[in-house]
Write a structure and sequence with these properties.
Elements lengths: L2 H20 L2 H4 L12 H5 L7 E5 L2 E2 L3 E2 L6 H10 L4 E5 L9 H10 L4 E4 L5 H9 L4 E5 L5 H13 L3 E6 L14 E5 L11 H6 L8 E5 L5 H10 L3 E4 L1 H4 L4 H13 L5
Parallel strand pairs: 1-4, 1-10, 4-5, 5-6, 6-7, 7-8, 8-9, 9-10
Antiparallel strand pairs: 2-3
Length: 266
Protein backbone atom coordinates (compact mmCIF):
# COMPACT_ATOMS: atom_id res chain seq x y z
CA UNK A 1 0.00 0.00 0.00
CA UNK A 2 1.33 3.46 -0.86
CA UNK A 3 2.16 5.89 1.96
CA UNK A 4 -0.74 8.20 1.14
CA UNK A 5 -3.23 5.32 0.93
CA UNK A 6 -1.98 3.94 4.26
CA UNK A 7 -2.41 7.38 5.81
CA UNK A 8 -5.95 7.74 4.43
CA UNK A 9 -6.99 4.22 5.55
CA UNK A 10 -5.59 4.80 9.07
CA UNK A 11 -7.54 8.08 9.32
CA UNK A 12 -10.66 6.35 7.95
CA UNK A 13 -10.54 3.64 10.61
CA UNK A 14 -10.40 6.35 13.31
CA UNK A 15 -13.36 8.20 11.75
CA UNK A 16 -15.40 4.99 11.55
CA UNK A 17 -14.93 4.30 15.26
CA UNK A 18 -15.99 7.87 16.11
CA UNK A 19 -19.03 7.70 13.81
CA UNK A 20 -20.18 4.35 15.23
CA UNK A 21 -20.50 6.08 18.61
CA UNK A 22 -22.15 9.23 17.22
CA UNK A 23 -24.47 7.59 14.65
CA UNK A 24 -25.28 4.00 15.61
CA UNK A 25 -26.43 1.62 12.86
CA UNK A 26 -29.98 1.64 14.28
CA UNK A 27 -30.07 5.40 13.66
CA UNK A 28 -28.70 5.11 10.12
CA UNK A 29 -31.36 2.55 9.28
CA UNK A 30 -34.10 5.12 10.02
CA UNK A 31 -33.24 7.53 7.18
CA UNK A 32 -35.65 7.89 4.26
CA UNK A 33 -32.96 6.65 1.85
CA UNK A 34 -32.45 3.37 3.69
CA UNK A 35 -35.70 1.89 2.40
CA UNK A 36 -35.51 3.52 -1.04
CA UNK A 37 -34.77 1.14 -3.95
CA UNK A 38 -31.36 1.74 -5.51
CA UNK A 39 -30.57 2.54 -9.15
CA UNK A 40 -28.23 0.08 -10.91
CA UNK A 41 -24.83 1.55 -11.81
CA UNK A 42 -23.91 -1.41 -14.03
CA UNK A 43 -27.16 -1.17 -16.01
CA UNK A 44 -26.86 2.58 -16.54
CA UNK A 45 -23.29 2.17 -17.80
CA UNK A 46 -24.56 -0.23 -20.46
CA UNK A 47 -27.45 1.99 -21.61
CA UNK A 48 -26.99 2.88 -25.31
CA UNK A 49 -28.60 6.31 -24.82
CA UNK A 50 -25.93 7.30 -22.27
CA UNK A 51 -22.24 8.17 -22.59
CA UNK A 52 -20.67 5.69 -20.15
CA UNK A 53 -19.20 8.65 -18.26
CA UNK A 54 -19.30 8.56 -14.45
CA UNK A 55 -18.91 12.28 -13.73
CA UNK A 56 -17.26 12.98 -10.40
CA UNK A 57 -17.78 15.77 -7.91
CA UNK A 58 -14.46 16.40 -6.18
CA UNK A 59 -13.27 19.60 -4.48
CA UNK A 60 -9.67 18.61 -3.80
CA UNK A 61 -7.22 15.70 -3.89
CA UNK A 62 -4.16 14.72 -1.81
CA UNK A 63 -1.85 15.13 -4.82
CA UNK A 64 -3.25 18.38 -6.28
CA UNK A 65 -4.74 20.18 -3.27
CA UNK A 66 -7.85 22.26 -3.96
CA UNK A 67 -9.25 21.83 -7.47
CA UNK A 68 -12.58 23.66 -7.15
CA UNK A 69 -13.30 24.47 -3.48
CA UNK A 70 -16.42 26.59 -4.12
CA UNK A 71 -18.27 24.28 -6.52
CA UNK A 72 -21.91 23.64 -5.57
CA UNK A 73 -23.07 20.01 -5.60
CA UNK A 74 -26.63 20.80 -6.65
CA UNK A 75 -25.62 22.86 -9.69
CA UNK A 76 -22.76 20.61 -10.83
CA UNK A 77 -24.56 17.28 -10.38
CA UNK A 78 -27.70 18.43 -12.22
CA UNK A 79 -25.50 19.84 -14.99
CA UNK A 80 -23.56 16.57 -15.27
CA UNK A 81 -26.73 14.57 -15.75
CA UNK A 82 -28.19 17.05 -18.24
CA UNK A 83 -24.93 16.69 -20.20
CA UNK A 84 -25.57 12.97 -20.69
CA UNK A 85 -23.43 11.40 -17.96
CA UNK A 86 -24.41 7.83 -17.07
CA UNK A 87 -23.84 8.23 -13.34
CA UNK A 88 -22.45 10.46 -10.63
CA UNK A 89 -19.51 9.84 -8.31
CA UNK A 90 -19.37 11.92 -5.14
CA UNK A 91 -16.32 12.10 -2.87
CA UNK A 92 -17.48 11.93 0.75
CA UNK A 93 -14.05 11.93 2.42
CA UNK A 94 -13.51 15.27 4.17
CA UNK A 95 -9.93 15.14 5.42
CA UNK A 96 -8.21 14.48 2.09
CA UNK A 97 -10.83 15.34 -0.55
CA UNK A 98 -12.91 18.12 1.03
CA UNK A 99 -16.16 16.17 0.64
CA UNK A 100 -18.96 15.15 3.00
CA UNK A 101 -21.89 12.77 3.32
CA UNK A 102 -24.13 15.81 2.89
CA UNK A 103 -22.68 16.31 -0.62
CA UNK A 104 -23.92 12.89 -1.67
CA UNK A 105 -27.34 13.38 -0.09
CA UNK A 106 -27.69 16.72 -1.90
CA UNK A 107 -26.83 15.03 -5.21
CA UNK A 108 -29.40 12.31 -4.41
CA UNK A 109 -32.14 14.85 -3.72
CA UNK A 110 -31.73 16.47 -7.13
CA UNK A 111 -30.96 13.51 -9.42
CA UNK A 112 -32.52 10.20 -10.37
CA UNK A 113 -29.45 8.28 -11.52
CA UNK A 114 -26.90 5.92 -9.98
CA UNK A 115 -24.66 7.64 -7.43
CA UNK A 116 -21.35 6.08 -6.47
CA UNK A 117 -20.13 6.90 -2.98
CA UNK A 118 -16.41 7.48 -3.55
CA UNK A 119 -14.68 6.86 -0.25
CA UNK A 120 -12.27 4.45 1.40
CA UNK A 121 -14.46 1.60 2.61
CA UNK A 122 -12.75 -0.57 5.24
CA UNK A 123 -15.64 -1.47 7.55
CA UNK A 124 -19.21 -2.82 7.08
CA UNK A 125 -20.49 0.21 9.03
CA UNK A 126 -19.55 2.47 6.09
CA UNK A 127 -21.75 0.40 3.78
CA UNK A 128 -24.81 0.91 6.00
CA UNK A 129 -23.81 4.59 6.11
CA UNK A 130 -23.61 4.71 2.28
CA UNK A 131 -27.15 3.34 2.00
CA UNK A 132 -28.42 5.76 4.65
CA UNK A 133 -27.14 8.85 2.77
CA UNK A 134 -28.64 7.83 -0.59
CA UNK A 135 -25.83 6.01 -2.43
CA UNK A 136 -26.51 3.30 -5.03
CA UNK A 137 -22.98 1.92 -5.24
CA UNK A 138 -19.78 1.88 -3.20
CA UNK A 139 -16.09 1.76 -4.08
CA UNK A 140 -13.75 -0.94 -2.78
CA UNK A 141 -10.04 -0.39 -3.38
CA UNK A 142 -8.22 -3.70 -3.91
CA UNK A 143 -4.92 -2.12 -2.86
CA UNK A 144 -6.31 -1.43 0.62
CA UNK A 145 -8.12 -4.73 1.24
CA UNK A 146 -7.43 -8.47 1.30
CA UNK A 147 -9.42 -10.79 -1.00
CA UNK A 148 -11.37 -12.01 2.07
CA UNK A 149 -12.23 -8.42 3.07
CA UNK A 150 -13.33 -7.56 -0.48
CA UNK A 151 -15.68 -10.55 -0.58
CA UNK A 152 -17.14 -9.85 2.88
CA UNK A 153 -17.67 -6.11 2.26
CA UNK A 154 -19.10 -6.72 -1.22
CA UNK A 155 -21.47 -9.29 0.28
CA UNK A 156 -22.70 -6.76 2.84
CA UNK A 157 -23.25 -4.20 0.07
CA UNK A 158 -25.17 -6.70 -2.05
CA UNK A 159 -27.42 -7.59 0.90
CA UNK A 160 -28.41 -3.90 1.12
CA UNK A 161 -29.06 -3.62 -2.62
CA UNK A 162 -25.90 -1.61 -3.29
CA UNK A 163 -23.63 -2.38 -6.25
CA UNK A 164 -19.85 -2.53 -5.89
CA UNK A 165 -17.09 -1.01 -7.98
CA UNK A 166 -13.82 -2.82 -7.29
CA UNK A 167 -10.81 -0.71 -8.21
CA UNK A 168 -7.62 -2.49 -9.30
CA UNK A 169 -4.14 -1.12 -9.86
CA UNK A 170 -2.24 -4.20 -11.06
CA UNK A 171 -2.25 -7.86 -12.12
CA UNK A 172 -1.56 -9.05 -8.58
CA UNK A 173 -5.05 -7.86 -7.55
CA UNK A 174 -7.04 -9.77 -10.19
CA UNK A 175 -7.76 -12.62 -7.75
CA UNK A 176 -9.77 -10.17 -5.59
CA UNK A 177 -12.56 -10.03 -8.19
CA UNK A 178 -15.46 -12.10 -6.82
CA UNK A 179 -19.10 -12.89 -7.69
CA UNK A 180 -20.40 -10.03 -5.52
CA UNK A 181 -18.61 -7.38 -7.64
CA UNK A 182 -20.69 -5.67 -10.34
CA UNK A 183 -18.17 -3.27 -11.90
CA UNK A 184 -14.39 -3.60 -12.17
CA UNK A 185 -12.37 -0.40 -12.53
CA UNK A 186 -8.77 -0.07 -13.61
CA UNK A 187 -7.15 2.97 -12.00
CA UNK A 188 -4.57 4.45 -14.34
CA UNK A 189 -2.81 6.26 -11.50
CA UNK A 190 0.37 4.75 -10.08
CA UNK A 191 -0.20 4.98 -6.32
CA UNK A 192 3.51 5.33 -5.63
CA UNK A 193 4.35 8.06 -8.17
CA UNK A 194 0.82 9.46 -8.80
CA UNK A 195 1.66 9.47 -12.52
CA UNK A 196 -1.27 8.40 -14.73
CA UNK A 197 -1.03 6.30 -17.88
CA UNK A 198 -3.84 4.55 -19.76
CA UNK A 199 -1.36 1.77 -20.48
CA UNK A 200 -2.62 0.20 -17.22
CA UNK A 201 -6.14 -0.09 -18.67
CA UNK A 202 -4.84 -1.49 -21.95
CA UNK A 203 -2.61 -4.06 -20.24
CA UNK A 204 -5.16 -5.36 -17.75
CA UNK A 205 -8.26 -5.51 -19.96
CA UNK A 206 -7.61 -9.01 -21.41
CA UNK A 207 -7.45 -10.40 -17.86
CA UNK A 208 -10.82 -9.04 -16.71
CA UNK A 209 -13.88 -11.34 -16.51
CA UNK A 210 -16.14 -10.92 -19.54
CA UNK A 211 -19.33 -10.86 -17.45
CA UNK A 212 -18.29 -7.80 -15.39
CA UNK A 213 -18.91 -4.21 -16.49
CA UNK A 214 -15.46 -2.66 -16.97
CA UNK A 215 -14.44 0.96 -16.48
CA UNK A 216 -11.23 2.98 -16.76
CA UNK A 217 -10.45 5.57 -14.08
CA UNK A 218 -8.08 8.53 -13.61
CA UNK A 219 -6.01 10.55 -16.04
CA UNK A 220 -8.63 10.64 -18.80
CA UNK A 221 -8.45 14.18 -20.18
CA UNK A 222 -8.84 13.72 -23.94
CA UNK A 223 -12.06 12.58 -25.67
CA UNK A 224 -9.90 10.53 -28.09
CA UNK A 225 -8.71 8.47 -25.10
CA UNK A 226 -12.32 7.47 -24.37
CA UNK A 227 -12.88 6.56 -28.03
CA UNK A 228 -9.71 4.40 -27.90
CA UNK A 229 -10.65 2.73 -24.58
CA UNK A 230 -14.11 1.93 -25.95
CA UNK A 231 -12.37 0.11 -28.81
CA UNK A 232 -10.32 -1.80 -26.22
CA UNK A 233 -13.65 -2.85 -24.66
CA UNK A 234 -14.28 -0.52 -21.72
CA UNK A 235 -17.91 0.39 -21.06
CA UNK A 236 -17.44 3.20 -18.57
CA UNK A 237 -15.04 6.03 -17.72
CA UNK A 238 -14.70 7.76 -14.35
CA UNK A 239 -13.76 11.40 -14.90
CA UNK A 240 -13.53 14.04 -12.20
CA UNK A 241 -10.52 16.31 -12.24
CA UNK A 242 -10.83 17.08 -15.96
CA UNK A 243 -14.28 18.55 -15.32
CA UNK A 244 -13.79 19.94 -11.81
CA UNK A 245 -10.73 22.04 -12.67
CA UNK A 246 -12.96 24.00 -15.06
CA UNK A 247 -14.82 27.04 -13.56
CA UNK A 248 -18.06 25.45 -14.82
CA UNK A 249 -17.62 21.66 -14.48
CA UNK A 250 -20.98 20.79 -16.06
CA UNK A 251 -20.15 22.75 -19.23
CA UNK A 252 -16.77 20.99 -19.47
CA UNK A 253 -18.59 17.65 -19.10
CA UNK A 254 -21.14 18.57 -21.79
CA UNK A 255 -18.39 19.51 -24.27
CA UNK A 256 -16.47 16.31 -23.52
CA UNK A 257 -19.54 14.11 -24.02
CA UNK A 258 -20.41 15.87 -27.30
CA UNK A 259 -16.88 15.14 -28.56
CA UNK A 260 -16.99 11.43 -27.74
CA UNK A 261 -20.41 11.14 -29.39
CA UNK A 262 -19.20 12.54 -32.72
CA UNK A 263 -18.63 10.01 -35.48
CA UNK A 264 -15.00 9.78 -36.53
CA UNK A 265 -14.44 11.71 -39.74
CA UNK A 266 -12.77 9.83 -42.56
Amino acid sequence: MSDILEKIVAQKRKEVEQNKALYPVALLEKTIYYETPTVSLSKYLLRPDKSGIIAEFKRKSPSKGFINPYAQVEEVSIGYMQSGASALSVLTDHEFFGGSNADLTTARNFNFCPILRKDFTVDPYQIVEAKSIGADAILLIAEALTATEVKALAGTAKSLGLEVLLELHGEEQLDKICDEIHVVGINNRNLKTFVTSIESSERLFPHLPSEKVKISESGISDPDTVVHLREVGYQGFLIGEQFMKHPEPAKACARFIQQIAKPTLA
